[in-house]
Structure formats: C-alpha cells, structure tokens
Amino acid sequence: MQTLITSMQEMTDTFHTAVCARDLEAALAVVAEDGTVEDVPGGGARSGEDLRRHLAEEVLPHLPADLTTRRVTRTADIRTLVDQRIVGFTHDRELPWLLPGVDPTHRRAEVLAISVVAFRHRTRAAITRSLISSHRTLWDHTGLRIQLGLA
Asked: Which domain of life is it from (predicted)?
C-alpha cells in the first residue's frame, strides 16, 4: 500500500510540475483518458479533448510569470490525495481559468489552494498502473479578490 501512495504522490507532483513548466503532454500523461480537472470557482470539470484545449489555451499560456507554490500539508489514502498549497503570483496577465474577464491588476497575491486528487488503479499481471481520475482545486477566491483589490 505504501508503494501505491508513493506513486500517487509522484503522479500528483508530476502533474503540478508539468503545468508550472507549461508542458501539456507531461501533464496529460498522468491523467486518465476520461479524467477531469476543475478549478473552483472558475469553471466546470473538463475531460478529454475539452481538457486538452482548456489547458493549452486557457491555463498554460496564462500562468503568471512569477508563479510559486509551497505545500503546507499533504494527506493521502489509497484512492485520494489532498494537498494544501500557498500559491503566490503577480496578477500580470488575464487568468481565464481562475478570474475570467478580469484585467490584470499587477498586484501580488498569496492564497490557499486545496487540491483533491482522486486516482483510478488497474492491476494486470501483478502490475498496478494508476492515473489521475479527478483533480479539483478549490481556491480561496475571496482572499484572492481582496488581495487584488477586486472586492
């Protein structure tokens, strides 16, 4: 079981690292074909080609230049991993995936983001393969809007 949880942690880290590096293929490589990704609030769950388009057009090219993340806590069981992270950035561009329709304020913000990541495990010939089946990030939207002068 410990190996399975370690694999889930590595997969979650791979997804986050790939997104921050703007590497679409590496991010999608750890998500199941019917897996979903969602930022709350900000948009509904996306999967398949809609997820590919969303990441390629609305997320990756719009990540702030100085984006930083710092994990506060991580909890996992055999199906789900939960990360609490402090995400910091300067609002230097539109963020259609997080603040749709809001022009850049050029203010710095640091907010809590909680990611709940679910996994699907398949075992064949004694080899277990896991992929992300759901990745939902809940943002402290109120705190973000206050720090950016939008509330």
From this structure: Bacteria
